[in-house]
Amino acid sequence: MILGLDYIISSAIIIAFILPFYIYRKKIFKKYYVKNNISYFVHEVTIYLKDKYPKVNFDFSRINSIIRTNSYDQARILILEEMTKQFIELAFEKRTQKNIPKELLWASYEKESIPKNSTPNNLLRRKNFVIKRDNYKCNRCGKSIKIDTSMLLLIKDLDQGGTYHFENLSILCNDCNKIINSQAPEKLIKDLNIFNSMMRRYIK
Ligand SMILES: [Zn+2]
């Protein structure tokens, strides 16, 4: 059988039309299908959280029932709330920290480390030392921090005999600082950066 020219041309046109869909299938898939696919959303959130908060062991099995019983849009928000809840519930033990080599300390360091009635005026200098010693990571969740997005933490409170020695100082991200100083941390979900950044990134 010899194929007619018409047949060959129309086949070529059809193939030319279909081919781009095949070549760009991944992009098209991502745009029109995956966009509304909850497992893709969970996958993205998992990567994001593990990368950003390396010291938190998020339990993703707890979101299965959320997915089963909610619509796509509701489920996404509930998942972000659940992850934030787990972040709040993370147990935190204050431990004595490493000292700073004596040769790096200044003459009045020892004297100024003993708390008086007011906070020492070189607290920012101490914070700079602590953030470097702790590799710019939050002591509780492991998030990367900068000097202006972090808070100094006293391991042992002053009223319990704590001092400003480096062994008694560590550093926290703003979220962890809010959590450990809150009387009702479970109510903080919507005030925390972790939740609001994920909302901006994945929902809005
Ligand atoms: Zn933190």
From TrEMBL:
The chain crosses the membrane at residues 6-24. One of its GO terms (molecular function) is nucleic acid binding. The keyword Membrane applies. Keywords: Membrane, Transmembrane, Transmembrane helix. Residues 125-178 form the HNH nuclease domain. The keyword Transcription does not apply. It comes from the Bacteria. This is HNH nuclease. It comes from Arcobacter nitrofigilis (strain ATCC 33309 / DSM 7299 / CCUG 15893 / LMG 7604 / NCTC 12251 / CI) (Campylobacter nitrofigilis).
